[in-house]
C-alpha cells in the first residue's frame, strides 16, 4: 500500500480528462479551462440549430477530427460521444429562416399602364358616333346597338378563352407557341364576332364599327399576352387624342373615323409584327400540342358572363325605361379599375404565400387567408367606388350614382375580382358557372321587370359574390392550392 501511494504522484495526470483533472482555482471559472466549452463556443451556431447530436458529429468528422485527436484533446471516446456532450451543453436556438422573396411582387406602374390600355378604347365610341347616326331602335338607343353588343360579347368570351390558351402555350412552349396560337385564334375570333354583328339588323356604319371593334380586340389580346402593352398604348394614341378633342369641341365626323382607323390599323400591324417575330424566333415544340382545348372553355364562359353583367349594368335602365339613364360612367369606372384589380390579384397571391409560411395549422391558415381576402376585396371595392364617383362627377349630364346603384356596382365588382382570383389559381369552372348563373338571373329579372335593374343587380351579384368569396376562402385555405 505504501508503495502504491508513493507511485500515485508519479503517474502522469491527463489534462484532457475532466474526471482526473485537478479542481480549478476558485478565482478562475471552470469554462475558461474547459476545451469542450471552447469548442462549443466555436460551433455555437451549429450546435444550437442541431436537432440531434449526430448532426454535430457529422460536422466534427467533416472538420477532420479523428478518434485519437478527440480522446487526446477532449477526453471523449469518439465523435459521437463529444457531439452528445456539445448537444447537451448548448441550448437549442433554431434560427428563423430568411424570408423567401415574394414571387408575386410587381411594380404598380405596370398595372397603371394596363388600366390605360383598358380604358382608352372607350373614347372610340365617342369618335365613332357618326357611324351610328342611323336612327334609333325601340329602346331609344342608336340603331345597330344590338349588333355592337352581340359582337362585343362574342369577342369578349372568345378572347378570354384565347388568352388563357395562349398563356398555357406560353408557359409550356415559349413565345413561339403562344404566337402560333394567337395567329390562328385571333383571326377566327374576329370572324365569329363579326358574323354575330352581321346576323342582327344594323346600318352599314354600325356594322363597320363592329368589325373594327372586334379586329382591335383581337389585336389587343395578342399584344397583351405577348407582353407588348407599350405598343398597344402607342396604337391607342390617335383615339386618345381624339377623345381629348371631343371633350373640348366637336370635330368633323371624318376626323373621328380617321383616328379610329389609325388606332385599329396600328394595333393590327403591331400584333401581326409581334406574332411573326415570335414565331421566327422560336422553333416549334411538341409540348403545347398536348394541352386540352377544353381547359380554356370555362374562361370563355366567365368572359361571357362578365360581359352580360357589365352590359346590364350599363344599359339595364335604358332597356326597361327606368329612370337613371345609360351607365357610361359605370363601364368607364370598371375598365379603369382593372389595373387596380390585377395589381391586387398579385398582392393577394403574395400575401397568401406569406400567410402559408406563418401558419402552423390548417385552422390558422384559414383565418389568415380570410383576412387577406377581406383586405384585398375591400381595397378593390374602395378603388372602384372612388373611380365611379370621380368619373360621374366629370361625366357631362350624368348625376352622381345613388346609394343602391353604387352598392350594386360594388357587388358586381366583387364578383368580377373574386372570379378572376379563382381563375388565377386554376379554378375555372366554379367562377364561370356562378357568373353565368348571375348573368342569366339578371337577364330574366330584366325581361320580367321584377324590380329596378340596380336592385336586381344588387341582390343577385351579392349572392354570387358571397358564394365566390366562400369558395375562395376554402380553396386558398388548402396547402395544396399554393404549390
How much is the average pLDDT? 84
Instruction: Please indicate the count of domains.
Output: 3
> Strand share of the residues?
under 5%
Low-confidence stretches: 1-32
CA-based shape: elongated
Helical content (DSSP H or I, runs of 4+): over 70%
The main β sheet shows up as: none
Determine the number of helices (DSSP H or I, runs of at least 4 residues): 19
Return the structural class: mainly alpha
Give the CA-CA distance, first to last residue.
77 Å
N to C succession of SSEs: HHHHHHHHHHHHHHHHHHH
Radius of gyration: 34 Å
- Strands, count: 0
Give a written overview of the molecule.
The chain is an all-alpha fold and 483 residues long. It has three domains: 20-89, no CATH class; 109-291, no CATH class; 297-483, no CATH class. It contains 19 helices and no strands. The model is unreliable at 1-32 (pLDDT under 50).
Amino acid at each position: 500500500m505504501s508503495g502504491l501511494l508513493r507511485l500515485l504522484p508519479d503517474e502522469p495526470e491527463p489534462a484532457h480528462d475532466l474526471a482526473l483533472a485537478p479542481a480549478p482555482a476558485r478565482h478562475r471559472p471552470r469554462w475558461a479551462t474547459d476545451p469542450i466549452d471552447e469548442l462549443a463556443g466555436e460551433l455555437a451556431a451549429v450546435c444550437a440549430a442541431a436537432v440531434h447530436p449526430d448532426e454535430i458529429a457529422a460536422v466534427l468528422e467533416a472538420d477532420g477530427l479523428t478518434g485519437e485527436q478527440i480522446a487526446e484533446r477532449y477526453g471523449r471516446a469518439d465523435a459521437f460521444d463529444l457531439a452528445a456532450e456539445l448537444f447537451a451543453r448548448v441550448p437549442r436556438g433554431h434560427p428563423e429562416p430568411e424570408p423567401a422573396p415574394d414571387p408575386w411582387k410587381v411594380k404598380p406602374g405596370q398595372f397603371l399602364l394596363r388600366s390605360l390600355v383598358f380604358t382608352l378604347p372607350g373614347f372610340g365610341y365617342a369618335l365613332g358616333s357618326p357611324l351610328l347616326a342611323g336612327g334609333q331602335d325601340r329602346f331609344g338607343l342608336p340603331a345597330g346597338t344590338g349588333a355592337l353588343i352581340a359582337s362585343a360579347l362574342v369577342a369578349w368570351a372568345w378572347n378570354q378563352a384565347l388568352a388563357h390558351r395562349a398563356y398555357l402555350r406560353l408557359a409550356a412552349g415559349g413565345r413561339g407557341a403562344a404566337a402560333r396560337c394567337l395567329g390562328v385564334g385571333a383571326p377566327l375570333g374576329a370572324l365569329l364576332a363579326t358574323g354575330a354583328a352581321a346576323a342582327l339588323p344594323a346600318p352599314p356604319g354600325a356594322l363597320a364599327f363592329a368589325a373594327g371593334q372586334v379586329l382591335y380586340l383581337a389585336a389587343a389580346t395578342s399584344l397583351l399576352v405577348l407582353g407588348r402593352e407599350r405598343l398597344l398604348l402607342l396604337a391607342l394614341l390617335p383615339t386618345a387624342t381624339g377623345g381629348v378633342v371631343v371633350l373640348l369641341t366637336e370635330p368633323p365626323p371624318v376626323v373621328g373615323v380617321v383616328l379610329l382607323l389609325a388606332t385599329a390599323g396600328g394595333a393590327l400591324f403591331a400584333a401581326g409584327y409581334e406574332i411573326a417575330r415570335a414565331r421566327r424566333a422560336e422553333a416549334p415544340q411538341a409540348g403545347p400540342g398536348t394541352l386540352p382545348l377544353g381547359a380554356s372553355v370555362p374562361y370563355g364562359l366567365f368572359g361571357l358572363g362578365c360581359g352580360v353583367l357589365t352590359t346590364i349594368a350599363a344599359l339595364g335602365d335604358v332597356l326597361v325605361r327606368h329612370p337613371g339613364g345609360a351607365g357610361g360612367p359605370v363601364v368607364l369606372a370598371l375598365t379603369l379599375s382593372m389595373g387596380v384589380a390585377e395589381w391586387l390579384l398579385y398582392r393577394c397571391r403574395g400575401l397568401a404565400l406569406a400567410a402559408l409560411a406563418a401558419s402552423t395549422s390548417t385552422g390558422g391558415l384559414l383565418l389568415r387567408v380570410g383576412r387577406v381576402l377581406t383586405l384585398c376585396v375591400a381595397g378593390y371595392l374602395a378603388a372602384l367606388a372612388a373611380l365611379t364617383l370621380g368619373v360621374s362627377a366629370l361625366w357631362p349630364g350624368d348625376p352622381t350614382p345613388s346609394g343602391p346603384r353604387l352598392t350594386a356596382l360594388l357587388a358586381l365588382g366583387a364578383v368580377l375580382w373574386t372570379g378572376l382570383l379563382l381563375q388565377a389559381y386554376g379554378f375555372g369552372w366554379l367562377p364561370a358557372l356562378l357568373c353565368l348563373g348571375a348573368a342569366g338571373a339578371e337577364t330574366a329579372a330584366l325581361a320580367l321587370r321584377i324590380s329596378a335593374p340596380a336592385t336586381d343587380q344588387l341582390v343577385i351579384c351579392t349572392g354570387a359574390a358571397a358564394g365566390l368569396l366562400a369558395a375562395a376562402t376554402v380553396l386558398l385555405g388548402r396547402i395544396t392550392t399554393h404549390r
